Amino acid sequence: MPYKPLVTAFFSSIAIIGSMGATASSVRLDIQSAWPLTLPASGQSAQHLADRIKTTSEDIKVKLYSAGKLVPPLEIFDAVQQGTLDAGYTSPLYVAGRFPALQLFGGVPFGPSALEYLDWIYNGGGLAIWRDIYAKQGVVTVPCGLMDAEAGGWYNFEINSTDDLKGKKIRFAGLAGEVMKKAGASVVLLGGGDIYPNLERGVIDGTEFSMPAIDAAMGFEKVAKYYYLPGWHQPAAINELIINKRKWDSMSAAQQGLIEDTCRETQLWTISSTTIANADAINKFKAAGTQIKAFPPAVLAAFKKGTDEVMNEEANKDADFKRTLDSLNSYREKVSLWTEYKGN
């Protein structure tokens, strides 16, 4: 065959194959966030993720919805599981009632630092367990938003000893909520939007919610006198992108890899996006007259003792919780010497 027709045929075949590949592999991904897209870290991280995928991929067409636009935030998992929603940007804590082990992925009282948390997830076996738990439900998780430490909470009374907690109605959730019960508090479960009015009316005496930047968006400084820092119940947390497994399996390895890599980038973006905002929020609280307090050592010791008891109780009740806790504790033991010598 003459040279020129051969070259023409070669490039024509490449164009056809490229066109076929682009058409065959294009995928649409509808994602709903569990939080308003303007909320620091959580909702804003969902927006960041969607924007990055749109920028870096031509064949993943993302449509992002804010909280409640398609389904209620606490029903995102069910919608993704059933396939009525492709994906959700949410927290594993929202389904911890059904899968107790997931509490260990959403934030651990007296748990590891943010960096060690990620290291356990990616290099210490955490992600394999997390995905195994979800695989039975037809859902794939991609860790996708590393959150900085939460504050110790807002209270309308001082906490000088655990006696001050007895009989007080406090909004807490998860493992930390069980610890607060052991300390004598009456734990109340409330959605985010119900906390402010209940604090304002005195229905509850205190609440934990999140880090200062997110607490500032909620306006809690207007209805609570005392803000406790640092927190103890969630030194770090990880939000997730959950995807219907059939949708995930329909993607190419390149598309899956791009989502994984974009979520890793979103991890870094999330934790670095709130550092200045957290400092600004504390200044705002002080200007509003909020008293910034620290938990006394004896109170923290009681919380730690209660945490150990709760962990053992949960491990005895649930096999997945036990294997997850064993994995996390094994990892922390392996790195403990470096953690000790490197300091803060």
What does this entry look like structurally?
With 344 residues, the chain is of the alpha/beta class. It folds into 2 domains: 26-148 and 236-276, 3-Layer(aba) Sandwich (D-Maltodextrin-Binding Protein, domain 2); 153-234 and 287-316, D-Maltodextrin-Binding Protein, domain 2. The termini are far apart. The strands form 2 sheets. A 6-stranded mixed beta sheet has the order 7-6-8-5-9-11, with helices on one face. It has a 5-stranded mixed beta sheet with strand order 2-1-3-10-4, sandwiched between helices. The radius of gyration is 23 Å and the shape is globular. It contains 14 helices and 11 strands. Helix content is 51%, strand content 15%. Helix 2 (42-56) crosses helix 11, helix 7 (174-182) packs across helix 13 (297-317) and helix 13 runs antiparallel to helix 14. It has helices at residues 3-25, 42-56, 76-82, 103-106, 114-123, 126-135, 174-182, 192-200, 212-218, 245-249, 253-272, 275-287, 297-317, 319-342; strands at 27-33, 60-65, 87-90, 139-147, 153-155, 169-171, 186-188, 206-207, 226-228, 237-244, 291-293.
Q: Which architecture of the largest domain would the CATH scheme give at its second level?
A: 3-Layer(aba) Sandwich
CATH homology group of the largest domain: Bacterial extracellular solute-binding protein, family 7
* Principal-axes shape call: globular
The CATH class label of the largest domain is Alpha Beta
Number of strands: 11
Largest sheet: 6 strands, mixed
- Strand-residue proportion: 5-15%
Mean pLDDT: 90
Helix/strand-derived class? alpha/beta
Count the helices. How many?
14
Order of helices and strands: HEHEHEHHHEEEHEHEHEEHHHEHH
